[in-house]
Write a structure and sequence with these properties.
InterPro entries: P-loop_NTPase, Pif1-like_2B_dom. Residues 243-287 form the DNA helicase Pif1-like 2B domain. This protein is of the alpha+beta class. It has 3 domains: 2-100, no CATH class; 123-219 and 338-405, Rossmann fold (3-Layer(aba) Sandwich), CATH 3.40.50; 221-336, no CATH class. It contains 11 helices and 21 strands. It has a 5-stranded antiparallel sheet. Strands 2-1-4-3 form a 4-stranded antiparallel sheet. It has a 4-stranded parallel sheet with strand order 18-7-19-20.
Length: 405
């Protein structure tokens, strides 16, 4: 039987190589997998692995490893069909089920469907450790966190007047927010303690980029530009122009053009050396420029004051379903951190924090993360665009809309 099996296996490999050479992808429905053998390919239901004699088992083990190496097959099943006297392979090429499956698969993979859920106990915060010096602000944060703060129409929460900056359509409100968070910027531009205790938070990268552009223009010093090298993996026909690739900035990647100045604050986007504090989310200050490296100083945490070198590396977005290709960008893994996304500031303490909300936050949880970065109401400033509908009704002159409580 061994020569017969080798012949069929060889035909099977030749057929798969033909499919891959023509770049044809084999996709199956939820209840079917593709079955291929020496006699061709057909549809067949998933079946259990059948016990066979040792000679066939050894052959299949070798063939299975060869398939995985040649075609990068994620899943491979096989069974011996005694009624047809042949060996059938069931293979799945491409993304695993939890990436391309239906909604039912996504729901089944959640924690709520796990056998561990019945043993999980939800624990709520009872004290805010950052704002202990301001009891009123601490209680307000806990009400926001628990979703018990008084709402208007179940979708809006009123912000305290003493932490809100009056919104205007011109640049006056924005300039006031910047001045309140970064007072005497030119005099303290070189101070590590000054930069490590201040930041403006917002909801989206577009708003963050606009704020950082304004701040780097105000920051003293000569500007240094670093351009990235962009490409697409497996784009042999150059379907996308370089100008288009340079114009996009997927989540988790630095921009095509980095505008930097000496002593400006930046945040790291990749884990380079976690043992020495050079990891994703670390805030630094630029101290010197080189062509292929940046001399920076860590400004927070147990490694504060340490000088490190940031190299230029190749990066790709970890997960971006909005793009039909995989972008590869060679750039320094940093962004300006005058302003940051709310999610990026999770876990950090920012004594002097500004919050810019030109649109509603996603939920009360995101609002809590933004507010709880601060330590008191006196050092927390919010610039939020009010809801016009509620203003016309005279219900909430300074109300912030959120999706859910």
């Amino acid at each position: 039987m061994e020569p017969l099996m080798q012949e069929k296996g060889s035909d099977f490999l030749s057929y798969l190589n033909h499919l891959v050479g023509r770049r044809r992808w084999m996709n199956c429905s939820d209840d079917e997998t593709l079955v291929a053998s020496g006699n061709g390919c057909c549809r067949h239901g998933v079946g259990p692995r059948q016990p066979v004699n040792p000679s066939i088992n050894d052959f299949v083990t070798r063939r299975e490893e060869e398939l995985r190496v040649k075609l990068e097959i994620r899943h491979c099943w096989w069974r011996w069909r005694s009624d047809r006297c042949r060996l059938e392979f069931q293979i799945a090429i491409g993304s695993p089920p939890w990436e391309v499956g239906r909604r039912r698969r996504h729901a089944d993979a959640t924690l709520l469907r796990s056998y561990l859920w019945e043993k999980i106990r939800k624990i709520r915060l009872t004290r805010n450790m950052r704002a202990q010096a301001d009891p009123w602000f601490s209680e307000y944060l806990l009400r926001i966190s628990n979703g018990t703060e008084e709402t208007i129409g179940d979708d809006y929460v009123r912000l305290p007047n003493d932490i809100v900056i009056a919104y205007t359509e011109d640049e006056k409100a924005m300039n006031k927010l910047i001045e309140d968070v970064f007072p005497s910027l030119h005099a303290n531009a070189k101070s590590r303690e000054y930069m490590s205790t201040r930041a403006i938070l917002s909801t989206k990268n577009d708003h963050v980029d606009d704020l950082n552009d304004k701040m780097i223009s105000r920051f003293p010093g000569e500007e240094k530009l670093y351009h990235s090298f962009d490409s697409i993996e497996d784009d042999l026909q150059n379907n996308y122009t370089i100008d288009f690739l340079n114009s996009i900035t997927p989540n988790g990647l630095p921009p095509h053009v980095l505008r930097l100045k000496v002593n400006c604050p930046v945040i790291l986007l990749r884990n380079l050396d976690p043992y020495n504090g050079i990891c994703n989310g670390t805030r630094l200050m630029i101290r010197a420029f080189q062509d292929n490296a940046i001399d920076a100083e860590i400004v927070g945490g147990q490694h504060a004051g340490k000088r490190v070198f940031i190299p230029r590396i190749s990066m790709s977005p970890s997960e971006d379903i909005s793009l039909p290709f995989k972008l590869k960008r060679k750039q320094f893994p940093i962004r300006l951190s005058f302003a940051m996304k709310i999610n990026k500031a999770h876990g950090q303490t920012i004594p002097s924090v500004g919050i810019y909300l030109p649109e509603p936050v996603f939920s009360h949880g995101q609002l809590y993360v933004a507010l709880s970065r601060g330590v008191s109401s006196e050092t927390t400033q919010i610039l939020a665009k009010p809801n016009k509908r509620l203003i016309n009704l005279g219900k909430a002159p300074r109300a912030l809309s959120i999706e859910m409580f």
